[in-house]
Amino acid sequence: MHFIEFLLFSAFRWILLLLPLRAAARFGRGIGGLGFRILTRRRGIALDNLRHAFPDKTPLELTSIARGAFENFGIAISEFLRFSRLHPTDLRVLMNYDEHAEAFAKIGRAKGLLFMTGHYGNWELTGAGSSCLAGVPYLVIVKTQSNRFVDRVVDGLRTRFGSSTIPMEKAVRETMATLKRGGVVALAGDQSAPRESVFVPFFGRTVATFRGPAAFALRARVPLMLGFTVRRADFTYDFHLEEIDTSDLPGATDENILELTRRHVTVLEKYIRMHPEQWLWMHRRWKHVAPPESAYTDPRVSAR
After folding, report:
1. What is the pLDDT of residue 287?
2. Are 179 and 214 in contact (CB under 8 A)?
3. Does residue 169 contact residue 141 with C-beta atoms inside 8 Å?
4. Residue ranges covered by each domain of the chain
């Protein structure tokens, strides 16, 4: 079965490789729109998430955002599967380098950095493109694909511009070593986390969120920056980079990890609200939600 899946995956990829980049993006948008119509379970998850996140929007508005999220996914995957045809000069155009050069330079100047993104815009381009244009290889924490044939191709594309990858289940020791020697570790930290994680507000609900990014940044004493690519109508991207203030969070205490997690999730929500159709609403992000009485409060405020 895995080999059959790989054959279908390869056929889809070769179609994309035959197309120019923007034509491939339009093709991916069409595939995403088709997915919105036929993947009824995922469509239902997306609409339910959106109803909770935007209670004031009309059903028509929510449906439009959900359809856009499926289309965004199709575009992002289609562009990613063409990475083997891209070169650094292409990335400069695709990510509007001249308009965002200082953001890339800020990454290049960092002496140890935890770089986070979310499944927003083109998240694979966010990591690979910013690494290449900043001139700094990343150690990217990834989730291994269940199909080993597909995983081999995906890993090759992720490392196309010089970064390396490590499975999340093996990442703790290498992450700390990389940060302490001044390297950059990158990850997407916006998916559903286990119940044992920290709970912070996200679109009005207190939701389980991975504590790892905040813990790594505080223990290694390195900056935590969030990067996002926002797609323009012409299928190029604006790159946004924000550093989370940790000057008042000395040490990797449970309280500081909780507070830093709240801060980076707040930034993620800000960007999603700007362009909600560019986020992955069909994921069960609110799988583990805390009851209202356990809603987040800053423990340092509660103690005063």
Report:
1. 94
2. no
3. no
4. 2-284
